[in-house]
Specification:
Two copies of one chain form a homodimer. In chain A, helix 3 crosses helix 4. The first copy, chain A, has 328 residues and is of the alpha/beta class.
């Protein structure tokens, strides 16, 4: 199941506006220190003038530049939890925004909420391995300001905005590869993370659709309970099948789900603290952009180097889990 | 690039309500016969009580039953132009609606508008070929009533509702296979088919979002011009690379884009009329469900038989094109 692919370049884009937890505490009338204590987030970005597409374009341009001399991109996968607009897919809008040649690439979006980027990497790797594609651009861009519910203090303070992109190519003579991927959805938890609107059931034009339906909703404590129960056996299976041991992993890049979500990895999943990378304190949970943003920052900081064994790991709405082992 | 996969079962679901073109002509004050003359659609279904998810479940159950004794489903791909709700993905909601076991399958949605089903088949085939999956359930379900704009007579009368699903498995000893797939997006046509709302740019709760932004919009004549220009060379390349000649194709199952869209296939793309299957007159353009619904009806009618060489072919918002050659 190995795919001989390489992440040739990574790029990020962050909104200019930094929102400190103290600001949110003031805004929502929360006690001093509540946000960081509860969610682990000290500050996060909020897109004011930036859009999903503008940040995607900035991150994609940076990734393309970092990738250097690679085959021209023939596959563009949008992997955000929300699109720029319902039709066409955000990937098509990005092809145009980047000025990429008409007809030279194919554009689609995937949606697995917080796991979208991971899924897109796995799909693109299979696409490249099969010979159908030479070079794929994958991007996640999240602008959540209008989707956050001030009445839900936890998600309101937890979630941050940002974008990240990656260029994926055949590994060539490098040692890079996608070693193993594993996925599972436990739909008994489908209601734990939801956005009821913006679809056909509660159509934006339906007078019965309430403003609250058009907001993100997250039952943090229940999600944590499901993750605490399901993630350890999921990882046992993963390490039983991937050919890797936990100790083989140089760096775990987890979805920055929440403070307690990250603590699970060391408390119950058998990783050592020094294996786990986190940017939660300064970025918050950037939904689908969380994992690629953390990976990009880990690479920029030298925490992930070529040849390192990296585990990308996340949970998301669904309730879904995904783990992807790669030699960077 | 061949994938040794087989469509083991197909299923469909249609809303109960049939809307005749004469009804639409009365409703919109159009001349008698305008709808069928313009779009080629005599009648179409409209979901009233059915939802995206309920029709998806009906189609999926039918496909699973038709597939018979196959490995249990471990991948569910939602492939509709619009989700049931924004989060989680419709595939996760379907896992729960079908009562499929928690954790046994992974759920994601893909969005390439009218080409979503085709893309999902290609992705699932690669997933199965790589050994990552044994059996994939793919579904497209469209309920468009609240998204149609009565001021846009053409799309209002062209588009119909419906759902279709397929179970994809490894080909085993059968002769079935996915022979070749080709994709391209020409984003200079990104504005030709759009739904501006239901995303982050024109958020449902944004007071600046107008009701019209939450409606489907299609510049039929311009799309036809782009398709007439781009589809013939796209198919020339396809037949230059796929190992098939046009005359090898037993049945072309096109996206039922429109009357003039279908006429392109014989007028400019080199197919004979008897090769092309159409259900446009009774189903309309069912967006992403159009191709799998047409394929299902062609199989049910005996027009497509095991071992037949089938070309699935479509255009969609983006502007995108896709062609997928398979031995059924």
């Amino acid at each position: 199941m190995k795919s001989r692919v390489r992440i040739a370049g990574l790029g990020t884009a962050l909104p200019a506006r930094v929102v400190a937890s103290s600001q949110i505490e003031q805004e929502l009338g929360l006690p001093d220190g509540w946000c960081e204590r509860t969610t682990g987030v000290r500050e996060r970005r909020r897109a004011i003038s930036e859009t999903t597409l503008s940040m995607a374009a900035d991150a994609a341009n940076a990734a393309i530049q970092a990738a250097g001399n690679v085959p021209s991109i023939d596959l563009i996968i949008g992997a955000s939890s929300a699109p720029q607009q319902a039709i066409p897919c955000t990937a098509a809008l990005l092809q145009r925004a980047l000025g990429l040649e008409n007809g030279r690439s194919f554009c689609l979006d995937v949606n697995a909420t917080c796991l979208s980027f991971l899924v897109a990497v796995d799909l693109a790797a299979k696409w490249i391995s099969s010979g159908a594609s030479q070079s794929a651009l994958i991007f996640s861009s999240e602008t959540t300001r209008q989707s956050l519910n001030p009445a839900e203090s936890e998600s309101f303070s937890l979630i941050g905005d940002g974008a990240a992109a990656a260029v994926l190519v055949a590994a060539g003579s490098s040692e890079s590869e996608l070693v193993y991927a594993q996925w599972a959805t436990h739909s008994s938890g489908a209601d734990l993370t939801q956005f009821l609107g913006a679809g056909t059931l509660h159509h934006p034009n339906d007078p019965a659709t309430t403003a609250e339906m058009n907001l993100f909703s997250m039952q943090g404590r229940s999600i944590f309970r499901v993750a605490a129960r399901e993630l350890p056996p999921f990882l046992d299976t993963f390490f039983g099948s991937s050919g890797w041991q936990r100790s083989d992993v140089d760096v775990v890049i987890p979805h920055q789900a929440s403070r307690i979500g990250l603590e699970l990895l060391t408390a119950r999943c058998g990783f050592r603290e020094e294996q786990v990378f986190s940017n939660l304190a300064t970025r918050g949970n950037c939904v689908a952009a969380s994992i690629p943003l953390a990976l990009s920052e880990a690479v920029a900081a030298g925490r992930v180097q070529r040849g390192d064994r990296v585990l990308l790991l996340g949970t998301g709405a669904g309730f879904s889990m995904g783990a992807l082992a790669l030699t960077y």
